[in-house]
Amino acid sequence: MSSESQNIEFKVTWRDEYLKWICGFANAYGGTIFIGKNDTGNVVDLKDAKKLLEEIPNKVRDTLGILVDVNLHQTDQGKFIEILVEQYPYPVNYKGQYHYRSGSTKQELKGAALNKFLLQKKGKRWDGVPVPNVSTKDLKQETFDFFRKRAFRSQRIDEESLADSNEHLIENLQLKEGNYLKRASILLFHPNPEKFITGAYIKIGFFERDSDLRFQDEIHGNLFEQIEKTTELLFTKYIKALISYEGLNRVETYEYPKEAIREALLNAVAHKDYSGGAPIQISVYKDKFMIWNEGQLPENWTIETLLDKHSSKPFNPDIANALFRSGYIESWGRGISKMTEQCFNFGLPAPLFFFKSSGFWVEFRKDIYNHNQLKDLGLNERQIKAVLFVKDNGKINNSDYQAINDVSKATATRDLTELVEKFKVLDRSGEVGAGTTYVLIGS
Predict the structure, then answer these.
(1) Kind and range of the H or E element at 291?
(2) Are 234 and 262 in contact (CB under 8 A)?
(3) How far apart are CA 259 and CA 27, in angstroms?
(4) What is d(CA 380, CA 185) in angstroms, rounded to the nearest whole number?
(5) How much is the pTM?
């Protein structure tokens, strides 16, 4: 006995509408439809099995234009039919409708989802689609100049090519198809990409809490301008710097490593699904920093794949290539490991990465275990001293607390209980009693 899944569907009897399910399997990863089985995979006996054995292949061929293997099985419980559907390299439609198997459900593709599917079946990416009625002359000269300076410094384009005209530079970057500019060239070099592409901008907001937005900004322009303006705004308005002096030299130490934040921003710009119409969203809190972009993971990838060493599979290869040539990004899929290393070297927790519905999140967290942050949380001086003790020593018990603060057992118990239950800074380790120790939460 088995259950329905990405590649398996059970039907008690045959109906011609199940041709849509066959279409969905052919457009996704292939699969098997069992006719004569209930939802739990048990055989219920198919009375007209022999007739269907002949009819189904013909209906599939005549309606969908594809071939499937149809097999008849005889068991002690009765007969059932197995329909084996291969994944097809070209789009398959059912009477003009395009169906797709996702998880254990069938979806009819429409609008942007259908466009994306058809492009992928043709071996094209969204950012590689040509755009009519726009030429290189419509692109922004200042952005070409900016790109040339960066590309010269990165030495990823030879000097001779950089000296070429804008037209030749666009061709060298493979941002044209025939006589048409690609969408990537509009996003990268046009003065107003939003004229062609809805939502091609970045939003930043500072939140006291999720429902309490204190102030916000929007950054418009082409992608090069968005990257530069967003980075500058983040580190002048949203992310605080601690000021210190080494001799006469003023030293600014930001709350987060600048290169890690920049890497996360570049990832969002390069991998965003621009067909969705939603801007990149950056949410800044007192204790964390989050970047969201609409998009999907590559086929068969999980968050674990991203965290392991992996190849580079940009969602927008033409955009990613231009960013690479300009020296903004690497091409070997090291962005996430670089962010993690930079946070570790900065004394911060590793960033978190998670995928929800249609979007990808990166979350940076502060090291809250410092005197000022703990005081802002409401801890008293004894509790702050205890938390810093745990940070240095890994754990604390009631006797340690009494010793470092010169307090009674009752006071130590009360303070430690607050750190666990009220402030949620520490976790209890072991049974409550003489052997109880306390560690930093999440450790």
Answers:
(1) strand 288-294
(2) no
(3) 41
(4) 56
(5) 0.71
* Strand ranges (E), 304-419: 352-356, 359-365, 396-397
The predicted pLDDT at position 312 comes to 66
pLDDT at 309: 67
What angle (nearest 5°) sits at the alpha carbon of residue 351, between those of residues 332 and 370? 140
**178, two tokens:** 């025939």
Half-sphere exposure in the Cβ direction for 39 (13 Å, CA): 1
Mean pLDDT for the chain overall = 89
Question: Each residue of 227-264: pLDDT tens digit?
Answer: 999 999 999 999 988 777 777 777 778 889 999 999 99
* pLDDT confidence band for 204 (50 / 70 / 90): very high
Q: What angle do CA 389, 392, 398 make, to 5 degrees?
A: 35
Residue 330, judged by CB atoms within 10 A of its CB (0-12, 13-18, 19+), counts as middle
Can you list the alpha helix ranges (DSSP code H) found in 82-222?
111-121, 141-154, 159-162, 166-172, 183-189
3 state DSSP class of 395: coil
Percentage with pLDDT > 70 across the chain:
93
Cα separation values, 299 from 28, 296, 305, 332, 347, Å: 11, 9, 11, 18, 34
Q: What angle do CA 142, 148, 151 make, to 5 degrees?
A: 140
User: Looking only at Cα atoms, what is the longest distance across the chain?
Assistant: 92
Dist CA 119 CA 272 (whole Å):
16
Does pLDDT of 442 surpass 70?
no
Between 19-27 and 49-64, two packed helices, what is the crossing angle to 10 degrees?
60
As a whole number of angstroms, the distance between CA 316 and CA 197 comes to 14
pLDDT band at 40 (very low <50, low <70, confident <90, very high): confident
User: What's the rounded Cα separation, in Å, for the pair 408 and 399?
Assistant: 9
Q: CA Rg, the chain, in Å?
A: 29
The two three-digit tokens of residue 35, written as one number? 């006719």
Q: How many CB atoms lie within 10 A of CB 125?
A: 19
Give the pLDDT confidence score for residue 1 in this predicted structure: 47
Which of 111, 148, 224, 132 has its CA nearest to residue 182? Answer: 132
121-156 pLDDT, tens digit per residue, is 887 888 999 999 999 999 999 999 999 999 998 888
**388: how many CB neighbours lie within 10 A of its CB?**
15
